[in-house]
Structure formats: C-alpha cells, structure tokens
Amino acid sequence: MNVDGVSTGIVLDHIQAGKSMEIYKLLKLDELDCSVAIIQNAVSTKYGRKDIIKIDERIELDMDVLGYVDPNITINLVKDGKLELKTHLELPETLTNVLECKNPRCITSVEQGAKQRFYLADKEKKIYRCAYCDVEHENK
Amino acid sequence: MGIKENEVRNLIKITDLSVEEIDELIGIANDIIADPEAYIDICHGKIMATLFFEPSTRTRLSFTSAMMSLGGQVLGFSEAASSSAAKGESVSDTVRTVGAYSDIIAMRHPKEGAPLIASERTTVPIINAGDGGHFHPTQTLTDLLTISEVKGHLGDMTIGLCGDLCFGRTVHSLIEAMMRYENVRFVLISPRELRIPKYMRELMDSNGAEWKEVERMEDVMSELDILYMTRVQRERFFNEEDYVRLKDSYILDMDKLADAKEDLAILHPLPRVNEIAVEVDDDPRAKYFDQVLYGRYIRMALILRLLGIK
C-alpha cells in the first residue's frame, strides 16, 4: 500500500495497533480541512504491528490526550519534507476534561461548569484519580 | 494547597500540611492554651463564614466558638435548606458571593471535593469542615493536638484503632497523619467485615508502617499507648449473627481496661452512642472530652495561621 509522505505536517507513529480511530476522534481530526491519512495494522519492527496517522498540516496537538491514550506514540514534526522534530510521549501527570468522574458522590457530578480534573496516582498501573474525590477512574 | 507564604491559604486535606506545618499549628495552640487572654481580641474585625450544606452541630459550634474566642465574628447557615443551594445555586456561586462578605470560610458539604472546588473559586481561605465520607482534616488536627498534649510527643507509640475501620474517615486520616512520625505502630481492631480498606493497607506498607490486625481488643489492650474508639454500626453487618457475636468486643468498659497501661489515652471523635460505657468517663485515661476542647484550640490556631495573623 502506498501513502504519500507528508511535506509539511505531523506524523503520529508507533500508535498501538487498533487505537488510531480513537485518537482520530479525540483529536477531532475529522474537523480539519487538510488531508489526514490513517494507516492501520502496519508492520513495526519495534512492536510487531502499529497504526500511523499522517496529518498534512501543523496543528496544535493535545499532548495530554495523546499521552493518556498511548504514551508510546512518537510525534514527528515535518517541514518541507524533512523531519524537524521527533517527540516521545509519556503519561501526563494531570488530565483536564479528558476523563469523566463516575462517582455520584463527587461534586463534579452536580456542579455546573466544573472541570473534570484527574491526577496520575500510579504510573506503573496507569491509575488516574479524580482531583476532587480521589476515586480511581475505571476504564470501561 | 498547604499553608505557605504568598499563596492562597486553604486546608482541604490533612496531607496538605507538612509535619513542620502541623508542628507550627500545635505550637500556636499551645500558646493559646497557656495564655488565652492574649488572643481574645486578635481577630477583631475579621469575619468567618460557616457554610454547612449538611448539618453538623458539633463541628459548626467548634468553629464558631474558635472564631469568637479570637474576637472575630461569625455568619453562615447550618443546613442547605436555609441557603441558596436549596434554589439550585452552585457551590462556586455561593462561595464567590460569601467570599465578599467574609475573610475566611469553613465549609461542610455532602459532596466529595466541594471544598476544593470552592477554593478554586475564591481568594478567601477555605477550611474543609467535612466533605461527605472523604476528608475531615480539622478532626485529624484535633486528634493530633490531643495526642501531643497527653503524650508530650507524636512519635514512639502504639496506637490501637477500634471499631469501624472500613468506612471511618477519621481513622484513615489519623493513620495517614501519624504514619509520618517516627516509630509509630498501628493495631487495627475490628470485625472482619469492617477491616481497613485495601488502599490503606497498601499505603501503610508503601510507607513502611508497622501494623497488625486483630478482632478482639482484650488481646492487645496491654500493648496500647493510645486507644482510638469509633462506633460499630449495626447496619454495617451482613448478618445479625455476626453482629451479636462481635458487638461486645467493640464496647469499651472497665473490665476490658483491666490490662491497660496506666498512661493509656482513650480518644473518640464523638458523638458516642454505646461503644464506650459511661463508667469509663470517670477514669483518668478517658480523654475524649478533653479532645473536644483541644478541637477548639487547634481550630483557633488554624484560623490565625490561614488569616496570616500567626
């Protein structure tokens, strides 16, 4: 399969295979006017299989979202066909309006305009807790 | 969120305060105890708002008494029904408004994290006076001052915590606070159903705390320097049989104190129902009514510190 390289834009590489659509939605890439290519299940020497997203424009990326969904992603910033900057992600220490607290006893369940703030409680186990009630966020 | 220079001063949870900051508060409380007359007018012209979105007469009166003892004035409400919250006003809007009327706010709310939201919406210092089953840091400060006063120090002791260790937030906060002092050993006395939660065990282990669990207080009474009693509620038990079997183990009376040390100190966050027999009240080791008085002194110290007066 052949997908043109990016001349000036962003390549999100080493996305865990199967996660590219989740990132596409979270970063709201569907709202962009430029070309966006999603490559799923590509061969990776590092991880076996991976997804790649190519964005044909230099946009502002929400690093917190990316780091939370997949801290192994590599961000390549490309300018005039050349790699300008390569960035590796890690789990963000805090997340704002990325996760939602499900604790009905938490103030964020009733307070209008309250931000959903979480903090990284355990890096090894990837546990985030609500900054207001300290209840652990459960995936799914 | 701790008490530091040049930042908004709030107390949301006990670990907002470093050991040094707690020592400072205890120092101020000691000065007040030694010479209360010197403090009688120190908060003249200052106003404390007590916003109690759920009733707690004891805690509210303690804050009121503390502020009045410093010469300040107090306004507020004692239940959500008598505030704009009943009309659907948010916590944010309430504190923004009350912040214009007061210099410091003590707040109790049934929702967890409400005082933290409040602290983000006003420049007036916020004291968490209890947010649901979450935190109640001034109770822990009260416990620490009491232990410090009756023992003369906060390390080198064995603390027995007895009763409902699963849902009792005062117990969890006290362990978190005491874990930071040298050579403190915890003896956790509870029925199996009400044992301390897993995250607290993990916390104690990761901090290298020495602790053990038992079911009967009689078995460990002679080891204890502090006995912190809490209430075992009937409705917490899964079946009546277990309740009947265990309930007497969690009622402290003079017989159970037979093997206790001469200088044991018995504490209880109050209100008591029947978990300490009335006969124990006359024993010099019963310190739970002294604890109430220390609660007033430590709140006075906290108000002074948060207002930047001390």
Give a description of the structure.
The complex is a heterodimer of chains A (140) and B (310). With 140 residues, chain A is mostly beta strands. Chain A is 10% helix and 36% strand. In chain A, the strands form two sheets. A five-stranded antiparallel β-sheet of chain A has the order 2-3-1-4-5, covered by helices on one side. A three-stranded antiparallel β-sheet of chain A has the order 6-7-8, with helices on one face. In chain A, 26% of the residues are buried. Chain B has 310 residues and is an alpha/beta fold. Chain B folds into two domains: 14-135 and 295-306, Aspartate/ornithine carbamoyltransferase (Rossmann fold, 3-Layer(aba) Sandwich); 138-292, Rossmann fold (3-Layer(aba) Sandwich). Chain B has helices at 19-34, 57-69, 91-98, 114-121, 137-151, 169-178, 198-206, 240-246, 288-306, and strands spanning 47-52, 73-77, 104-109, 126-131, 157-162, 184-189, 210-214, 226-229, 265-267. The mean pLDDT of chain B is 92. At the A-B interface, loops of A face helix 4 of B.
Short description:
The complex is a heterodimer of chains A (140) and B (310). By secondary structure, chain A is mainly β. Chain A has 2 helices and 8 strands.
Secondary structure elements and their pairing?
The complex is a heterodimer of chains A (140) and B (310).
Chain A: E1 9-16, H1 20-26, E2 36-44, E3 48-55, H2 63-69, E4 74-79, E5 82-88, E6 94-96, E7 117-122, E8 127-130
Antiparallel strand pairs in A: 1-3, 1-4, 2-3, 4-5, 6-7, 7-8
Chain B: H1 19-34, E1 47-52, H2 57-69, E2 73-77, H3 91-98, E3 104-109, H4 114-121, E4 126-131, H5 137-151, E5 157-162, H6 169-178, E6 184-189, H7 198-206, E7 210-214, E8 226-229, H8 240-246, E9 265-267, H9 288-306
Parallel strand pairs in B: 1-2, 1-3, 3-4, 5-6, 5-8, 6-7, 8-9
Helix pairs in contact in B: 1-9, 2-9, 3-4, 5-6, 5-9
